[in-house]
Amino acid sequence: MTGGETPPGIAAAAALDDFADALGNAPRWLLETGGGGATTLRICAHRQGERLEILAELAGGPVQIVLEPHASGWLSIAAVCSGQEVFRAWLDRPYEEYEFWPEGAAIPAGRTIDPPGRIGKRRNWINLSAAAWPQLARFANAAGIVAAIEAEAQTMGRPDSP
């Protein structure tokens, strides 16, 4: 690590707290693909730098989303529905945007391929590949992308909007 870098564990904890702040300010989200729809992401618990628990109402049922920094320096994101984990991703922020990678993904050195999931630097949009997370296919568009945006966000100037 060189002089200006943040230690990985601290970066993951900071990202967790950034997401808590962003959701606290803008909890309403719109699904832009699949059948569309709206949801409110409600913060249930937040232990600064350690754990963020969010409740979402998706496809007619409650989904708990848990973010926790991992010893690897990545932020673990898990979604649980009816007591079963239905989604797991690992988040990193190597540049301005956040990247999602599925469990067990082979991430190439130098990140020479696009990640299968991204969140914008302002944390107001998200794109996920249904190829990387097949359980999301029912929410995807014809290109296999699941896209959601903060309800108050503008889509102008957003990269790869569906």
Brief account:
This protein is mainly beta. Helix content is 11%, strand content 40%.
- Return the average pLDDT rounded to an integer: 86
Radius of gyration: 15 Å
Number of helices: 1
* Order of the strands making up the biggest sheet: 2-1-11-10-9-8-7-6-5-4-3
Query: What is the share of helical residues?
Result: 10-25%
Note the main sheet: 11 strands, antiparallel
- The geometry reads as globular
Number of strands: 11
The fraction of residues assigned to DSSP E strands is 35-45%
Descriptive overview:
It is a single chain. With 162 residues, the protein is mainly beta. The chain has an eleven-stranded antiparallel beta sheet with strand order 2-1-11-10-9-8-7-6-5-4-3, with helices on one face. The mean pLDDT is 86. The chain has one helix at 8-25, and strands at residues 28-31, 38-40, 42-47, 51-58, 61-69, 75-81, 84-92, 98-102, 117-119, 125-129, 145-150. Helix content is 11%, strand content 40%. Strand 4 and strand 5 (61-69) form a beta hairpin. The chain contains one helix and eleven strands, in the order αβββββββββββ. It is globular, with a radius of gyration of 15 Å. The protein starts with 7 loop residues before the first helix and ends in a 12-residue tail after the last strand. The longest helix has 18 residues, at 8-25.
Task: Tag the structure with descriptive keywords.
1 helix, eleven-stranded antiparallel beta sheet, globular, 40% strand, 162 residues, mainly beta
